[in-house]
Amino acid sequence: MTSTVAGGRLLTPGEVAALFRVDPKTVTRWATAGRIGSIRTPGGHRRFRESEVNQLLAELTTDASTPTA
């Protein structure tokens, strides 16, 4: 279930994990380590800003057609 806030949509750890093809617990560890920012809901669940997730995904991925040095 996604929510929206002023900064855009909020994604669940499972949704972020699917984008990065990792386990949701890995996403939670990234948040704990400060690698990705998260928001806590009143119930204590983590949510991630879609814009921040997409930015991190773009930084970590490369275009297959672009040769690396």
UniProtKB/TrEMBL annotation:
Pfam families: HTH_17. Residues 10-59 form the Helix-turn-helix domain. GO terms for molecular function: DNA binding. InterPro entries: BldC-like, DNA-bd_dom_put_sf, HTH_17, SinI_DNA-bd. This is MerR family transcriptional regulator. It comes from Amycolatopsis taiwanensis. The lineage of its organism: Bacteria, Bacillati, Actinomycetota, Actinomycetes, Pseudonocardiales.
